[in-house]
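Supplementary Methods, section 5.1.

A reviewer requested that the exact input to the structure prediction be made available. We therefore reproduce it here, unchanged from the version used in the analyses.
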Amino acid sequence: MYRKKFDKRYLIIIIFIVSAFSLVILSVSLKKERDLNPVERVVKDATTFVVKIVNYPFKLAKNIIIENKEKEEIYKKYKKLKDKSENIDSVISSNENLESEVKKLKESLDLNTVLSDKILVNATVVYRNLGYFYDEVTIDKGSSSGIEKDMAVITPKGLIGKTSKVSSYTSTVKLLSNENMDNKLSVKVKTNDDYVYGLIYKYNSKSNTFFVEGISQNASIPENADVVTTGMGNIFPSGLLVGKVKKMTTDNFDLSKVLEVSSSVDFDDIEYVSVVKREK
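The structure derived from this sequence is encoded token-by-token as follows.
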């Protein structure tokens, strides 16, 4: 069966018509102030919706990245502020510690004026055994500085003990707070124009108090009276402060009175001391 061939001229005509029609539509659509026709509105809305859907993951990812960067920047600023705060706290703590040490050193140096008739050797506590905390301390001065055994050791607050072992550059100080004192310390208390004498025989670390026995039954001792050394025994010079009278009771046999004396020294905090050199 013979099929008639399609004439190419018709194809050219159709293409021309479609192109012309398209140009007309395009020219009309380029007018800025015209209203969109229904088809254009649908196409535009659909296109906008599709664009929003396509862009949403990218926008979300972008927001997350920006948020994370902001959080990172905030954290960095917080870290810097925290480091500065810690440095400030450290500086404040360091300054307070230095002020405390300077104060203690000044108090220690003032002893040279207060005890002008004594030869003092200032020293620092370099070791303290926790197992024997109230028994002894080690200081950084020894025989090379003229220290000898059985020399009185004091702080600006009062008497703390005596040297018991001496090497060339260190000395062990036996504290008055040692509950196993082998030698009772002779002390005296000022009452009006006279002195009352007694012996320290015990120390209580919980209350930081000494107990003095041998006080005369007839003695009348006021509260807060100073308790000082007598100078007997050729170890502790006379007049070194031990503490203040807290209260007075009677012994178990009702024969004499017992003084409870609050120590003038805080045995929990001993850093700087002075050794009272024995007079030749």
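The radius of gyration is 48 Å. These observations are discussed further in the main text.
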